[in-house]
Amino acid sequence: MRRKGYIYEKKAKQWLEQRSYRILEENYYSPYGEIDLIAEKEDIIYFIEVKSSQSSAIPLTYKLSKAKKTNIMNTSLHYIEKNNITRQISFSLITIQKETTRYYKHIIDMET
Fold it and tell me: Using one digit for the tens of pLDDT, what is the confidence trace for 12-38?
């Protein structure tokens, strides 16, 4: 399962790079969890979760639980403190279903 996730994370990374995002970290781990990608664009740091599926039956935004959002927030705070980040941040989600890639900004504000 992790191997499939790695393949989709690479696709997401390429998708971001094609849109002028600079990748700072891949699979950043902290005591609180993991963030798939950390990127930067226009002086904003993006903490990005990647979800994928070959089925289009259920929107992948539903796979992002409240617990996972909390882990992403705590892990991002770990990264911010460790790297002395003082810039604006955003929490994002990239979904890849079949061959369609979607980008959702500000996922922490999404309904859970």
Answer: 999 999 999 999 999 999 999 999 999
Runs of H (alpha helix) within 19-104 = 66-83
Reduced to 3 states (helix: H, G, I; strand: E, B; else coil), residue 68 is helix
Alpha-carbon distance values, 106 to 2, 88, 92 (Å): 25, 12, 5
* Structural contact between residues 47 and 89, judged by C-beta atoms closer than 8 angstroms: yes
pTM of the model: 0.85
Bridge partners (DSSP) of residue 25 are 38
- Of 96, 86, 92, nearest in space to 104 by CA: 92
Asked if pLDDT for residue 46 goes beyond 70, the answer is: yes
Q: What is the DSSP letter of 50?
A: E
Stated as kind and residue range, the H or E segment containing 13 is helix 2-17
